[in-house]
Amino acid sequence: MDQFVLNLIVVGATFALYIGIAIWARAGSTAEFYAAGQGVHPVLNGMATGADWMSAASFISMAGIIAFGGYDTSAYLMGWTGGYVLLAMLLAPYLRKFGKFTVPEFIGDRFYSQAARTVAVVCLIIASITYVIGQMTGVGVAFSRFLEVSNTTGLFIGAAIVFMYAVLGGMKGITYTQVAQYVVLIIAYTIPAVFISLNLTGNPIPALGLFSNDVSTGAPILSTLEGLVTDLGFKSYLEQSDTTLNMFLFTVSLMIGTAGLPHVIVRFFTVPKVADARSSAGWALVFIALLYLTAPAVGAMARLNLINTFYPNGVDGQALSLAEIEAGQDASGADLEWVNNWAKTGLLTFDDKNGDGLITYVGNADANELTVNRDIIVLANPEIARLPGWVIALVAAGGLAAALSTAAGLLMAISSAVSHDLIKGQINPNISEKGELMAARVAMAVAIAVATYLGLNPPGFAAQTVALAFGLAAASIFPALMMGIFSKKVNNVGAVAGMLAGLLTTVVYIFLHKGWFFIADTASFSDADPLLLSIKSTSFGAVGAAINFAVAFIVSSITKPVPANVVELVESIRVPKGAGAATGH
């Protein structure tokens, strides 16, 4: 069967499943739209959280970043997994006990201030929109190759699918759709990884195969890869090249950004009890670990296969010729059609600069004749390894599932912040439930349109764009949540001042390096030559968080103390027993 037709069948079947689930689980009330009626089983909620959490950055981009960045990019793994543990231990049970539907609602009530609630809404929208850009980037990449359409058309198709099941089903529809999406994405990620690990090392478990011997050389696979990349003039795969300061701050930024991301936090509002919030957090960690333990192996093995493809006779031998690429196979008859297919998307380019008829892949930018976008590595991996067509189609469906599941969760967070916290909470408290539900759906539709527009010109690879969103959440939302739960001294004025200080400094630092409103030509600095020491824009969230904490405590110390009833509220939140029903709806 033709690969294109196979892709259409598999991707179309998964989309039909998602839309069918959304129709079955259609939200009929605000409680179902915002929190799935707080009746989701912990195991299912853990699976949905895993899908919500493992975005296009995790599925599509992270292994690509690791494939080309090596040791330095291990911070993505440490930050994202460590941050989830932080979220599960320090925030999830307490926020569920508080009994509200949204993060801004908690901040508004804890800091007894509508201004604090409004600022939290602004912080949430900025971080979430930035995050959604990364998801839409991943959607465009997947569609452009596997459905053979342009990146722009792919974005529009993805936006339409998200609109159909997110706007219709709300959190209830999204939750059960994400359960299906998790099953699709984890199967799609692990099956090709198992095949490739078997081919290269003889070990069917990719995480163990990474530390096994290469069957063709008998040497450890990481040593083989290290030798190849250094011989070709690329930076070392196994040694640190980034500064320790930047790696530390980047890891911290990802960790606390994880714990401050509203679309993940809101998942713990969908279970019946506090104990269920803890249980679903544990299950989610199990489901997340299945992919995160596999990702380093996928990245390393994909890089090894890529080098071997373009140097079929070893790096000391002749590189792949332009004639072989154009013919679609090398001298041994191995299929190279994937190179031409990805070249059509513009995400892989080759140019015989010196006219010798060969495509040289080396670390010297002036001599290099092959450019591979990081975001295509996982999606192209089955083709590079020459796996069966059904595996290629499955990976396409998995990549789209990962991007769409997280996009839906983020859009849900934006929608609830606008309709529930802004419109019902401040503009029109007497709005009917039907009116609030309509406002939530309109807000989500607008958010989808904005995210799609911004996704056309993202500020970086999917994982890099997502890292910026984590930095924004780390600098603004996480400190407010931590101080709201664990401090009885931070008052309303301090909380607002802290959030604004953390958000603004981080946004300005990012815009100075990535361009104002992500318009690249307006950037004053680059991450290769940052403004402050060696701190890149993706790492500044940790500094922004420190500024947030410092400003909040200083301002609180020179203004009115926290009222006694709020002190009592804070003490009651920290007792991990019993969970009241959501109030005020």
UniProtKB/TrEMBL annotation:
It comes from the Bacteria. It is found in: Membrane. InterPro entries: Na/Glc_symporter_sf (IPR038377), Na/solute_symporter (IPR001734), Na/solute_symporter_CS (IPR018212), Na/solute_symporter_VC_2705 (IPR019899), Sodium:Solute_Symporter (IPR050277). One of its GO terms (biological process) is sodium ion transport. The chain crosses the membrane at residues 6-25, 53-71, 77-95, 115-133, 153-170, 182-200, 247-269, 281-302, 390-418, 438-456, 462-486, 493-512, 532-555. It holds the Pfam family SSF. Signal peptide: none annotated. It is a multi-pass membrane protein. Keywords: Cell membrane, Ion transport, Membrane, Sodium, Sodium transport, Symport, Transmembrane, Transmembrane helix, Transport. One of its GO terms (molecular function) is symporter activity. Gene3D superfamilies: Sodium/glucose cotransporter. GO terms for cellular component: plasma membrane. The keyword Ion transport applies. PANTHER family: NA(+):SOLUTE SYMPORTER (SSF FAMILY) (PTHR48086:SF5), SODIUM/PROLINE SYMPORTER-RELATED (PTHR48086). NCBIfam families: Na_symport_lg (TIGR03648). Belongs to the sodium:solute symporter (SSF) (TC 2.A.21) family. This is Cation/acetate symporter.
